[in-house]
């Protein structure tokens, strides 16, 4: 059987990795897929660099539309990124009857509903294993491997840059700014790291996970997005003393009234496997009602790990070529007629426990006022840590771990505690999850 | 569309779990599969108990052949276990044109070649996600999620009973016999625990992983199988002091001249995620050339975790019903014409590093003799630990970690060291893997 023909839109890091892995492992891949997978055309604005990567055998063009218009091409791989031209090209490829493979989480988290509908209409597949957690086959796990389960929640370290920064802050006791610069020097953070450090990239991925886990449409605009730029070394240290690590988690959880969808720094018990995922690695924990807790770990970025996911999608599509489109794995795990209208909950209704750090006057009665306010808001205390004021100091840190409550209740309590004249600085509040 | 009809052979723990999860999550599962999945007939020798589980709606028979002969049944789920009648029934179901789902690792590790060939001949699927690591979708990861990769090795904690025992031995400092009794009392070990504690169950699973990872036929008879019955609390303690945990691993690794396939207690650096998998949990690490290291963690046994895998297979088969059989995922990951004849290496050619514990006379020159013998066999030393002999004692423990060598060389060195008159007891030898 002839090789299936692939057109590549964009041959940067991931495109180059995809080309290289397809070339290097062509025998293995053909042995699995039952058919060769061949990159037949490449489009890149920098066609000189593109030619230097793919050599003479593969036509390189600067106009992506030439790839889409090529009747030989069965599958278009979009590796341009972003919401702009990438969206236009993906929709054009679908309209031309091509299957699409993309690593573009931003595009799918924001425009997924439109894109998947167009693909269904045309009877083609839009595959995106590379869009969440790079080389880890987490989308396959959520869509297929755990298909028996009512998923309860999924929570992941799904941004390598921020996990690298948090790992360095903890192990070296450094502050955020210093480590960010180091991460940029080492290539773990981009020159403009905003999307990573502000939690946007993780929120794109969490949005896709929420859709796959709960059969709801992608709703990035409803996600709560909070990054790590405000995180202080002090809190990482206190958390450690209390038996917790702080990780930037993307979390989506089913509650009675709706779905939680949020990205924020989170205290996790050090005894959990995911708390020990360090450096730029990714990991996702999924809780299903039948299977219990499962965890998936690996590299979330990089040329070849991401290529591994792109090519897995290519192999799947190669196999699916002869299947009745209605019997393929649905884009968002559930069949279109089974998509649920369960709402994403507003942040005020989200349930978590909290870590609080109050800078307080070292004076009798402070603790009693704080605990009274918490009690009045029906927030109970799990643990407390009060640093003894150093000789001659008039201030000290009061650290509190609460039991689970709602964000709304905590917001009210925070305003009241902040108003106390013995609370001397903005209260630090970090959410905490047991993940059990 | 009508529900797909499933016949269950055996409704014990896993069968009962499968029935319950299919019932409880029927809406979710149908939403994913696009079609209901219905247990239409159950065969169990204990038909009274079976009836008490499935109620009135489902016909229960004591003769499995009535299920196989039922023209309404599309998929037969074999949950009887063992090599005997289960093999006959699986082959008969295939001959009757039924797809088969099984959790029977023993059957497939030993008779897989015959069974998969029969299935191919008939154009039906034999699915076995539940056969390795219970609810963890590791077979899907190896066959599909990592399809881009040349797999380098896979290593897993794939027997919960032994991992529970090892975890208890370490955390409580108890010996094997004591913990085994406790495990039996708690239901973590069976009345006859031989298959678990002697490593046979793990070897069945490792055999399946070797076939899936490297495209070789299942060859259980070539696996090296070593259990945990000889393991002493002393060695767990020394390993801990050196920064290692001891786990029973199933390991399969590609080498230049062939494939390693082995189950044995193994020292793993405590810093590895898999070293921290405790209790009855399972985890598998897979190293691919593109993706790097990935890890999959979850419950490896139990009614509902195993049912989760059985049902994932049912969903896959439901979808595949309309696919050209040649385009389905191949049973052993690779197409029949791509199956490799790479041999399984004899144990003497396997490469590992080693932990050695020698009971030696507390006398000058002992260390020099031992290290000389190792050097003469070209085995280099990575670390050493010598306990000071207690006051009045004439013996002490000498613990050595070696760099990587072959099993054959180590065997020679062991015979020579054992012959020294200053070595006073059988030398303890445990293999060590860095898993990086």
UniProtKB/TrEMBL annotation, chains A, B:
Residues 355-431 form the ACT domain. Keywords: Amino-acid biosynthesis, Methionine biosynthesis, NADP, Oxidoreductase, Threonine biosynthesis. Pathway: Amino-acid biosynthesis; L-threonine biosynthesis; L-threonine from L-aspartate: step 3/5; Amino-acid biosynthesis; L-methionine biosynthesis via de novo pathway; L-homoserine from L-aspartate: step 3/3. SUPFAM superfamilies: ACT-like (SSF55021), Glyceraldehyde-3-phosphate dehydrogenase-like, C-terminal domain (SSF55347), NAD(P)-binding Rossmann-fold domains (SSF51735). Its EC number is 1.1.1.3. The keyword Hydrolase does not apply. The keyword Cell membrane does not apply. Gene3D superfamilies: 3.30.70.260, Dihydrodipicolinate Reductase, domain 2, NAD(P)-binding Rossmann-like Domain. It holds the Pfam family ACT. PROSITE patterns: ACT, HOMOSER_DHGENASE. One of its GO terms (molecular function) is homoserine dehydrogenase activity. Belongs to the homoserine dehydrogenase family. This is Homoserine dehydrogenase. It comes from Roseateles agri.
């Amino acid at each position: 059987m002839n090789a299936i023909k692939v057109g590549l839109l964009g041959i940067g890091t991931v495109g180059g990795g995809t080309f290289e892995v397809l070339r290097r492992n062509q025998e293995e891949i053909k042995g699995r897929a039952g058919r060769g997978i061949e990159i037949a055309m490449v489009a890149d604005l920098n066609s000189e660099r593109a030619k230097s990567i793919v050599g003479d055998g593969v036509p390189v063009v600067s106009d992506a539309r030439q790839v889409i218009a090529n009747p030989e091409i069965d599958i278009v791989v979009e590796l341009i990124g972003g919401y702009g031209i990438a969206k236009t090209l993906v929709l054009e490829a679908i309209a031309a009857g091509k299957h699409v493979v993309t690593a573009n989480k931003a595009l799918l988290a924001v425009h997924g509903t439109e894109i998947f509908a167009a693909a269904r209409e045309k009877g083609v597949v839009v595959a995106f294993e590379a869009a969440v957690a790079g080389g880890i086959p987490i989308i396959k796990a959520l869509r297929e491997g755990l298909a028996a389960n009512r998923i309860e929640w999924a929570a992941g370290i799904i941004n390598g840059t921020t996990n690298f920064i948090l790992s360095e802050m903890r192990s070296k006791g450094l502050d955020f700014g210093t480590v960010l610069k180091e991460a940029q020097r080492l290539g773990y953070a981009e020159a403009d790291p905003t999307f990573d450090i502000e939690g946007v990239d993780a929120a794109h991925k969490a949005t896709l996970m929420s859709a796959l886990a709960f059969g709801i449409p992608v709703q990035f605009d409803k996600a709560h997005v909070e990054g790590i730029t405000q995180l202080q070394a002090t809190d990482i240290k206190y958390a450690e003393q209390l038996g917790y690590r702080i990780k930037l988690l993307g979390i989506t959880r089913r509650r009675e009234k709706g779905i939680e969808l949020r990205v924020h720094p989170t205290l996790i018990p050090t005894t959990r496997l995911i708390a020990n995922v360090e450096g730029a690695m990714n990991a996702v924990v999924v809780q299903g009602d039948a299977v219990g807790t499962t965890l998936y770990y690996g590299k979330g970025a990089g040329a070849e790990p991401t290529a591994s996911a792109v090519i897995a999608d290519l192999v799947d599509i190669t196999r699916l070529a002869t299947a009745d489109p209605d019997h393929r794995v649905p884009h968002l795990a559930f069949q279109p007629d089974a998509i649920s209208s369960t709402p994403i909950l507003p942040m005020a209704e989200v349930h978590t426990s909290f870590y609080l750090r109050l800078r307080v006057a070292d004076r009798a009665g402070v603790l009693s006022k704080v605990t009274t306010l918490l009690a009045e808001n029906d927030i109970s205390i799990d643990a407390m840590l009060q640093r003894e004021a150093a000789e001659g100091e008039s201030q000290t840190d009061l650290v509190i771990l609460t039991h689970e409550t709602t964000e709304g209740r905590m917001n009210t309590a925070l305003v009241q505690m902040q108003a106390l004249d013995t609370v001397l600085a903005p209260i630090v509040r970090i959410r905490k999850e047991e993940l059990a």
